[in-house]
Amino acid sequence: MFFKFGLLGIFSLVLLTAVTIAAVGLSDRIEASDVAIVFGSKVNPDGTASPRLAARLDKAGELYKSGVIAHLIVSGGTGKEGVDEAVAMKNYLVAQQVPAASILVDSHGDTTADTAKNSTALMHLHGYKSALLVSQYFHIARARLAFKQCGISRLYNAHPVFFEWRDIYSLAREVIGFYAYALHY
Predict the structure, then answer these.
(1) What percent of the chain has pLDDT over 70?
(2) How far is CA 113 from the centre of its chain?
(3) Are 133 and 140 in contact (CB under 8 A)?
(4) Could you tell me if residue 73 is left (phi over 0), alpha (psi between -120 and 50 degrees) or otherwise beta?
(5) β-pairing, 103-106 with 130-134?
(6) Which of 32, 76, 148, 180 is most buried (most C-beta within 10 Å)?
(7) CA pseudo-torsion sign 136, 30, 110, 13
(8) Which element (helix H / strand E) includes 20?
(9) Quick one: pLDDT at residue 181?
């Protein structure tokens, strides 16, 4: 009997966490910020952005063109495709009429924690105090946590309107990721 209640409690906690993560990510908090930080995702071998990454970059470009942000940090690593995500992201934004001088590149954002650490260092270097995080809805809660752990408290967020069936898996994975980040730091 105790075992069944324990399993029910764990299941309830996981479900509540998943709902909270989705609610946080789907509730955009868009305010004028010093910089937008766009998290990397898959880049195709030819250097073009995957649909998921293109959606993030389009959202960031929209925010830039609307005047909500004047600077961007694009952060990513080099995936198995052998392409530097951050450089490909900058190229995509420049092709969308975002001035290259407004884009800082972090080519070592291999994880969310790396992006938070590296972007925080760039923010300090440039005197930026506020950040608008741009990623998929399921990633926003953990990204916000990572930046708070790096000492950035003026955080806002936006997500692109983009859905893939793998988002269901991604949301479940974020439950584990969120607790790992919360307990690790």
Answers:
(1) 94
(2) 10
(3) yes
(4) beta
(5) unpaired
(6) 76
(7) negative
(8) helix 2-26
(9) 83
Confidence check: pLDDT of 8 > 70? no
Contact 35, 166 (CB under 8 A): no
Between CA 181 and CA 50 the distance in angstroms is: 26
* CB count in 10 Å sphere of residue 163: 12
Residues 6+ positions from 112 with CB-CB distance below 8 Å = 39, 139, 142, 143, 146, 177, 181
Predicted pLDDT of residue 5: 66
* CA atoms within 13 A of residue 34's CA, in its CB half-sphere: 17
User: In Å, how far are 44, 45, 46, 184 from 157, measured between CA atoms?
Assistant: 26, 29, 30, 23
User: pLDDT tens across 115-132, in order?
Assistant: 999 999 999 999 999 999
Burial of 12: CB neighbours in 10 Å, binned 0-12, 13-18, 19+:
exposed
In whole angstroms, give the CA distance from residue 58 to residue 45: 20
pTM of the predicted structure, to 2 decimals: 0.90
Identity of the residue numbered 99: P
